[in-house]
Model the fold of this input.
Amino acid sequence: MISIVFTPEIQKRIHEIVYACEGETGVTLFGKREGAVFSVTDACGPDPLATRGACHYCGDEYASFVYADLLKRFSALERLGTLHTHSHSMHLLSKEDRETISELLKTSDELIAGVMLRSGGGIEAYPIYFSRKIPEGREMQVLFAYPAVGIGSGGSVPPDLFVLSIKAPVKPFLMKGFFFSIFFPSK
Done:
């Protein structure tokens, strides 16, 4: 099964981005692929000046600038894909989302795309793996790992510093409320 791995630091960053506004927003995921496992080591939201609506946000080139900066420190880093919010419990990609993915697959071999739903202060994530060989997409298993050493500057974790002591997801393909209550140890 194709899997995606998040550390608590990345979970926290995504949570902050998603709850920074009420309208639709998204995150671009950066990291490394090893076999069927994608390890997310960094994430960024849209440009703070991006246009957002209740059911749409305007993408921009901000993630490209962030990626270029990350590559200066981690040359093996890959741009993995994006997750974006939907409202009203719509956890499936829209027709427009799928059309965009089809266009992207004309110039990319593979990507991750998916939906995030705000839910009770947490986030339900539904990542899907797409490639030229699997253009219809395949749901991904969500796993959790913790870094072997402290988080690097700016919250970024170099791709080779993961210890795969995987925490089981709440449910396959579903990360409901995982950001604080389940996976952050209490102090």
Observations:
- Residues 110 and 131 are 4 Å apart (CA to CA).
- Confidence is low (pLDDT under 50) at residues 148-187.
- The longest strand covers residues 110-119.
